What we know:
Shape: globular
CATH architecture of the largest domain: 3-Layer(aba) Sandwich
CATH superfamily of the largest domain: P-loop containing nucleotide triphosphate hydrolases
Number of domains: 2
Strand content: 15-25%
Structural class: alpha/beta
Distance between the termini: 20 Å
Helix content: 25-40%
Amino acid sequence: MSRLQxxxxxLDLLALATxxxxxxxxxxxxxxxxxxxxxxxxFYLRVKFSKGRLFCIAAKDYDAINDNILESDGFxxxxxxxxxxxxxxxxxxxxxxxxxxxxxxxxxxLAGYANINQxxxxxxxxxxxxxxxxxxxxxxxxxNETFARQASVDHPFQFWTLNGxxxxxxxxxxxINKCKPLWKVPASILRDMNQVENMPGRYYTHWTFExxxxxxxxxxxxxxxxxxxxxxxxxxxxxxxxxxxxGLVYQIFASNMDKFIINKVPxxxxxxxxxxxxxxxxxxxxxxxGFGPNLDYAVHLxxxxxxxxxxxxxxxxxxxxxxVYMVQKKYGFYAMExxxxxxxxxxxxxxxxxVLSKQLGIIIKNAYKxxxxxxxxxxxxxxxxxxxxxxxxxxAAIDAYRTAVYDSRPGHENERLDNGTTDIDTLDSNExxxxxxxxxxxxxxxxxxx
Length: 450
């Protein structure tokens, strides 16, 4: 606990969180604003002094729960509070236990809201309190269920964190805008919140870099370079405000292509392949992405496309074999991993058999298929930091990235358009090739900002 640096806003939040009449407490704002570290402490204190017995922590999946809540760079629930223990049922999943101020044992369920099989454990239970991380990406059905689990509770509470999102998102319209805003809140957000009446027991707080005691002016300036100024992600991650994505996805690339297109292959430490299988009126795509020493940068090296309609599995394997030989000969890497669209297991097995019979030295794996917006956000960070490049002969990738646009249909504004008018197949294939190193590259980026 001595490592923590607190200011008056932090202490005020903790005092507010322990009040029994606080039913919903929202922390919205920028990255590195200390909102997650503060909500972890708030949740612990509320559970500690609660008369209830059962609680729940929810995030996108178990990895997110562990990274953001339980560990949180050394400031997670397990690090800050030694009395919180991680327990596993012999026949089930993990949960937390701790001893309350009343001397009674408290149990905290862990639920990944991205998969109903992970959060169905809350069904039928009476749950006193929830901590929900990144609440804006949770399904509406899950959010409604959390409130249903508290129907018979005397002092229910929910603590939420989020970055900005579409102002028309249900999480704002149905819940957050009905909270009472506290302290300093951007005018654009206040405008939305002032249009509806506050509900008792519900409070909203906004967080920025300046609220985090460890964020010096130098760290703030470095963090601001993570996303292109004026972009959707700059608005929600750096300014901590709400907004919708519109226009070109990779505007920073489209408007500065000379900065990112290179003619000479830089030093590479590894190459990873990606494969996207096309359907009717789309294409099969093979991609090769190179990575610099210590994952300092990434380079989209090669992209080959072929019509999917009328193409047999044998023809697909022939073209993949040619692609592998070309990459091996051109770049001098003979042992590589290849990540394929996991929706087509039959085609993956066919390619795997061809690779084995020809002894190509390629390991075939299922693509991670991380959320599309996570992939977009990651590449925008690399572009903004000058760590993502395209070889000048990789026309397919260059064209796909410079023309990718957001969907303009109501309710889909923060999604990448996928209606056949842009080359989504090439984007997917290229993204599958860098997904395996996303986490490690992000860690290195984060370390460079601390």
